[in-house]
Specification:
By secondary structure, the chain is of the alpha/beta class. It has helices spanning 11-20, 36-40, 64-73, 77-84, 102-113, 132-139, 151-164, 172-175, 183-186, 214-224, 246-256; strands at 30-32, 48-54, 57-62, 122-126, 143-148, 176-180, 191-192, 195-196, 199-205, 225-236, 259-266, 273-280.
Length: 287
């Protein structure tokens, strides 16, 4: 059953949520190293499914029940708590990485239909979960960084999916890096000898549901995109019961004045979904 875990209908409880916003302790960001045991791990056909993402591209994806079993074995309290509440989201504890959200498929199809050039690009799959967008980028000869809030999701979902779709697993050490934790502290990571690492392409899907995190999410794009970099944000026009949505996030970007913003795709029916494309107005603003 799908349920957002942020707000209840009772007004008193909503006031309690407002009062506790400042006391939420978000998990600090960190790099997740790919271990030799992970590289050597063998998977059988019961561990994964093969999914047709778009014509000509099948991906092997770890089964959610297998990932959940591993999480239970490791006693991952935050995600087990969310599952016990039948909730996809528990703020600052679990941010939905076990589920493949429909806007990830929207973004995948957009990439396919618009022939986005990935060759030699540095790509960030932000809030990656299963890592579908990053896997597409890897198939198209990119260097890819995968980021998700929960370490447990990176270890039990993202990394297995990368390895299941990599012929030469040791090559993943050269083409991929993995990160977990809060966006605000993630923005301060990836510092190299030449300064802060930047990305040519940043993709994110279904990450705008919580308006309290919009500024942190936006700052990743603002600080991490190269001068000529392009960002894509896929999400629902409005997230009922949570308060976030595309117009709210788009307004934040437009008010800052750094990026041009364009709605490049909209769904034709059902719950409205769309994709935003952003690129810097002036290169000097990144200096």
């Amino acid at each position: 059953m799908f349920k957002f875990g942020f707000f209840k209908d009772d007004e008193v409880q909503e006031k309690d949520v407002d009062a506790n916003k400042s006391t939420i302790n978000w998990i600090p960001a960190s790099k997740v190293e790919l271990s030799l045991s992970q590289i050597e791990k063998q998977y059988d056909h019961n561990d994964y499914i093969e999914t047709l993402i778009f014509p000509g591209l099948k991906l092997k994806l770890i089964r959610s029940e297998r990932a959940l079993h591993n999480l239970e074995q490791e006693n991952c309290a935050n995600i087990i708590e969310a599952e016990s509440q039948h909730s996809d989201l528990v703020p600052a504890k679990y941010e939905g990485g076990l589920k493949i959200w429909e806007c990830s498929y929207d973004l995948s199809n957009y990439i396919f239909e618009n022939f986005i050039d990935f060759r030699g690009k540095m790509v960030l799959d932000l809030g990656c979960g299963a890592g579908i967008i990053g896997l597409i980028a890897l198939r198209k000869d990119s260097l890819v960084h995968f980021q998700d809030y929960n370490l447990e999701v990176i270890k039990n979902v993202t990394i297995p999916n990368v390895l299941l779709n990599t012929k030469n697993r040791e090559n993943a050490l050269k083409t991929c890096e993995f990160f977990c934790g809060d966006w605000e502290s993630f923005t301060a990571l990836n510092v190299s000898n030449d300064g802060a690492l930047k990305y040519d392409l940043i993709f994110t899907s279904e990450t705008i549901y919580n308006p309290d995190n919009h500024r942190k999410l936006y700052e990743v794009f603002k600080q991490k995109l190269t001068l000529d970099g392009v960002g894509f944000i896929a999400g629902k026009t409005y997230y009922f019961g949570v308060g976030g949505g595309m117009r709210q996030f788009q307004s934040l970007i437009e008010e800052d004045g750094v990026f041009n913003v364009e709605v490049v795709w909209k769904s034709q029916g059902g719950l409205q979904r769309e994709i935003l494309k952003i690129a810097r107005k002036e290169k000097l603003q990144c200096s």
